[in-house]
Amino acid sequence: MLFSSHERAPEEGLTAEQQEYLSESYLRAVLNAGSSDVTANVQWVNQMQAYVETLGSADTPYIPVNFSSDPRSDASGDGSFTEVGEISSWPSSLGLAATFDPDTVLQFGQMASQEYKSLGIGTALSPQIDLATEPRWLRVSGTFGEDAEMAGAMAANYVAGFQGTYADDGDATWGTDSVATMIKHWPGDGAGEGGRESHTNAGKYEVMVGDNSAEHWSVFQQALDSAAVMTSYSITLGADGEPEYAQRMGSSYDDGKLTALREDNSYEGVVVTDWGVTRATTDPDEPVIATAWGAEDLSVEERHFEIIKNGTDMFGGNNDAAPVLAAYDLWQEAYEAGELEVDARTRWQQSASRILTMSFNIGAFDNPFLDLAASQAQVGSQDKVAAGQEAQLNSIVTLKNDGAITLDPEGDWSDKTVYIPQTYDTGFNGAFSEAEYTEGPSIDVEAAGKYFGKVVTDEVEYDSEGRVTGYTAPDLSDVDLVLVGMRSPINGTSFSKAGWDEEAGTWYPLSLQYGTYTADGDNVRRTSVSGDLLDDGSRENRSYYGASSAISNGADLDAFNRAADAVEASGRDIPVVVALKATNPVIHTEFEARADAIVVGFGVADEALIRVALGLHESNGRLPIQFPADMDTVEANQEDVPKDLTPYTDSIGNTYDYGFGLHLDGSVIKD
């Protein structure tokens, strides 16, 4: 019933701490958050499996370790395509959604599961299938977009691809290639008020102001063949600020949410908490991940007890059996007092049956050990690497092409020069680290060098601390193309408390534009829907009316303007192409009119964007989310309702609505 905290270093082998929780707390579900190095993983997995074999006895049944992983196959942050021998890279989930092709997701699941299994990973902590109805939400990139029907179809195929072992005739059963999936985060976590994220107090509330819970559920209902479900962190409120379900508590403590899953949807698989829900920010040891929203006044043991009462089976991020055993005693006391219908042994056996079924289905007991040569043959094999590259290319969306890009798969740019401007990002403080300042070319220069004869960039001036103080654009006399990399405006990370200045006790808006946004429009809430209940009976107001945004990569817009200005100053007709690396919708008013072409990638390598920007591959992707006209329509949107923005219409008349995309000849892609 324990799911380990993040293990980030397989190359260190079996550690004393791991031996302790395996032997003393009987933990058997280990979260592998390390690299995909085949040798390191095979050695670590085999060491751990051999160790737990020694723990079996007449009194202690042998149970192998079930390794799990968060998504590790998306190309986000990659410069070049992966090579054969490296784990294959694919678009992010949002990028897969941009293909509008559930069959691509099925293919991904079939191939990625073989790589996972070859790394010893038997459970995928994915897919994340929250419906992306709030455009500012910090986890939009992990979703399948904002259309429930499409997201549900892709979720179902993801589950089928990972969990099935496929015969030559296409029939699938549980087998040697099967990896259990864990759909998350029930009952949907995409409606955080103002886009704030529930990993921290800043975003612990989601608001169903449009009374649209059923549509969020519907995505999960299409994927309930999944072996496991992970619950969300959020406290869910209705438009009146009152609980949408049963309690003003996070999902693991809200029996209304779990009843809806177990009873209304007849789900009999494993239910797992997200990590850290049995720890609270008020606990004396000040845990890093602490998300016991609404359960702060309970003891750790009581939190485990309440969660098990609600039908949950496993505790994410808990390496210690003691509170689970204490919850067993609390359960038995309540049963003997007539407060519960079944005794503790029966209830614990119910969870054990579900958990063991998941392990049996993936063949964990049959052969828990890995063969290094066999694993090396599977991870990063030619067919998987090629399929991942093709999926990346097919996911890229062309929003604008004013004659700058011509489709020519055999095009040769080896005698051409490209100018790629520089940018920087100031970063954000988070739970695990202080803000990291980064700077460099806006597109990976090594990847660009594969296609161009010469790559030029800005001259950079630095201060004594290595921070950028100024840029000078290069001479463009011999430049044939300007390629500007931009990212969605970055408001923070899941652990950065984005939207809340904790020290000042004030709130500020998340924004989808690069320049400073001040939230003083008519659609900005003066009184928030969410907020803590105060001692005097009133409710905290989390409104950010009148406050301004905090974007860490505003320099991306400066990079674009510097490049566009340099082209104008040159007097030459040099195409300016934007390669937008998107994690959220972007408001295009600040730069679109000056760009000759805009291509968008969702979690793809820079090389994929370069290939489409040069016309070496057709553009086939479509927007899986709306790109809004301005922040006014964003403020007017209801967090739980999809497609309720006014989309941006560009300078040549195209509207960046859900499903929009252009082929490189300028024709709109049709269904």
Radius of gyration: 25 Å
SS field, number of helical segments: 16
Coarse morphology:
globular
> Beta-strand percentage?
5-15%
Tag the structure with descriptive keywords:
671 residues, alpha/beta, six-stranded mixed sheet, 16 helices
Give your account of this protein's structure.
The strands form seven sheets. This protein has an eight-stranded parallel sheet. It has a six-stranded mixed sheet with strand order 13-24-23-20-14-17, with helices on both faces. The longest helix is centred in the first third of the chain and has 18 residues, at 38-55. The chain has helices at 16-24, 38-55, 93-98, 102-118, 148-163, 213-221, 255-264, 300-309, 322-336, 344-361, 372-378, 382-395, 445-449, 555-570, 606-613, 631-636, and strands at residues 2-7, 29-32, 66-69, 121-124, 165-166, 172-173, 180-186, 205-208, 228-231, 235-238, 270-272, 315-316, 397-401, 417-419, 422-425, 438-441, 454-456, 459-462, 468-472, 481-487, 500-501, 506-507, 576-581, 597-601. It has 671 residues and is α/β, with parallel strands linked by helices. It is 27% helix and 14% strand. The protein is built from 16 helices and 24 strands. Helix 4 packs antiparallel against helix 11 (372-378), helix 4 (102-118) runs antiparallel to helix 12 and helix 5 runs parallel beside helix 6.
